[in-house]
């Protein structure tokens, strides 16, 4: 059977390779909104505040700032690469161009593994808050327990994924409309929560009113490097997702400038929101292991579910709806990245050319979007049935994947621009120093996470033969990626023989 041929070609130094996507359908504001929705502030903070507080105590703001810095440095490198090669393949295309097809393929595997794994997690969280919200609205407590019913949970999760895939399939215009509503709502509720927490702390009615201190912003006050590393690993995860705006570069108005600018704006918006909400939670709850303390292990899986009532009173239902909308919004927008990465891989011959198929009507990666949601759904179903601990431990490996492919992409910027990085002070900082420091830091975090995850206490505490399950799962994902790469080498050896450092980036 003849495979469909991919679309036309232009040299990446001049313009993007046209893949049939909808050109000019997304502007800077729309890109920032989609970037924020992918990061999912309400969902992410609800699950990350407690574990981070347990690791670093009241130095939460310090860890947020330190975790933000490598993201910003890496984003500067992404911006430079996008100016030179605006391509939807991002990590795959740029790493292949800088280091060759093998590293490019594995870099893209890190991105695909991270995004497809997190899709299942987002859908699972959406299911939890869907039934919790219905329970709060109706006053029937038993409805909230439906999420623990495995068949009901799995069916609802698959429906959510299918709905998100449908919106993504219909293109950027539909995506923008949905995201404007969902993102605006969750941001407003988070700010409401922060203001309410500050007011209760100042009025003396907070659970553990804690006076603001600039020492909270001092990273050197954290008691140990191990605690610092644990906090950084968590903070890297909570910023992850901003790079989705780069995968939309071929669909952006101003392909070489808008995506890079939107990526940096996304990170700045998110760090500001995180800081305000974190300060509010700290002043209200403190970091003790008391009933509503951020150090209480019983509430760390979902901090906002525990704190919304004491902080927001009868309007706590809004927080449940905010986390639900946050996870639902991110579920839909996160599909953008793996679909376009697989589209590029099909376009350039690293995968079957079916992946390069674009919907004639909606101009979106038709085949790749369907594959992404099918894999994510199948993964969730299998893991949810086997063990919920295994599912969440697999999600914990996301930190490894994110640090890996961000680090590879940042160093690709350094290598690609190595001959022109000293032309000016600006070029030296943006093309060499910033991405070099950001990439090295993230790769250090990557290896530190691998080392730490060997401890059985890491993650859920599950182990096999005395080795932490998170480490085993992380290594399994990487080995699976290597095996998939060699299989593709067997099927498509011509892709792996190419020298991508030449001016032209060939297609199938």
From TrEMBL:
Gene Ontology CC, one term: plasma membrane
Source organism, top-level taxon: Bacteria
Q: Where in the cell is it found?
A: Cell membrane
**Do you know which Pfam families this protein is assigned to?**
AA_permease_2
- Example GO molecular function: transmembrane transporter activity
Keywords (alphabetical) are: Cell membrane, Membrane, Transmembrane, Transmembrane helix
**Membrane spanning stretches:** 21-40, 60-78, 109-132, 152-169, 181-200, 220-242, 262-284, 304-324, 366-386, 398-417, 429-447, 467-487
InterPro entries from the entry?
AA/rel_permease1 (IPR002293), APC_superfamily (IPR050367)
Q: What is its main location?
A: membrane
Q: How does it sit in the membrane?
A: Multi-pass membrane protein
Q: What is this protein called?
A: Amino acid transporter
